[in-house]
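Support request from a user on the community tier.

User writes: "When I paste my structure tokens into the form, the page sometimes reloads and wipes my input. The last time it worked, I copied everything first. Here is what I submitted, just in case something in the input itself triggers the reload:"
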């Protein structure tokens, strides 16, 4: 489902939603538009409250442990992952100079700004429903958003005594600026693909792609 067609998003105040999806590079070029930064500030606070309450009510972790656990699910890499899964990244408005360079920092910021827009339109209960639908399932299965995915995938494969292989399928670009594409195969079946500026980076991305599929 396209992000803008999700029922909760269709009911968000249109002006707030457009603001939530607008990067400063776009608002600088279009003086009649606002960027997402203020909404991001609000959304960050709303997200912290909702996830903090979840850990308080559903775990017996100590304060420091809750803080560490919460951080792993609201960090930049996690937020950008949620946003990409929802398709938010496809709707971010950027200026001409920023086109093709919508990085994970921007995508994570927009996830928070959209939550801020939901909160202002619908209030805390609906914002909480949104977070519980999108984020809590990952918390419940203790999903890992960062780390040495090659090692993690290797451990996963060894548990089932399966074979694991990384295959370089393509490399292109100038000698000083090459890009590599790698596939990872488990028992000769392609489980993931990755792209990177080095073979090592591409292998990690392929391992991450395979690991997130196996963790679902």
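"...and here is what came back when it finally went through:"
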């Amino acid at each position: 489902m396209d992000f803008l067609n999700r029922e909760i998003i269709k009911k968000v105040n249109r002006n707030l939603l457009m603001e939530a999806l607008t990067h400063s590079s776009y608002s600088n070029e279009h003086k009649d538009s606002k960027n997402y930064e203020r909404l991001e500030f609000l959304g960050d606070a709303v997200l912290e409250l909702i996830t903090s309450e979840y850990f308080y009510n559903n775990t017996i972790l100590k304060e420091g442990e809750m803080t560490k656990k919460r951080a792993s699910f609201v960090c930049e890499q996690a937020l950008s992952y949620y946003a990409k899964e929802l398709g938010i990244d496809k709707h971010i408005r950027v200026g001409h100079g920023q086109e093709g360079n919508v990085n994970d920092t921007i995508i994570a910021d927009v996830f928070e700004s959209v939550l801020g827009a939901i909160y202002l339109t619908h209030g805390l209960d609906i914002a909480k429903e949104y977070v519980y639908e999108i984020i809590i399932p990952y918390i419940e299965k203790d999903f890992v958003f960062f780390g040495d995915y090659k090692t993690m995938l290797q451990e996963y494969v060894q548990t089932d005594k399966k074979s694991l292989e990384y295959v370089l399928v393509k490399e292109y670009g100038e000698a000083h600026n090459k890009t590599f594409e790698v596939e990872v195969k488990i028992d000769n079946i392609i489980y993931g693909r990755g792209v990177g500026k080095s073979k090592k980076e591409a292998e990690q991305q392929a391992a991450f792609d395979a690991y997130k599929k196996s963790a679902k």
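Agent notes: The reload is a front-end session timeout and is unrelated to the input. The longest strand covers residues 164-172. The two ends are 18 Å apart (CA to CA). Escalated to web team.
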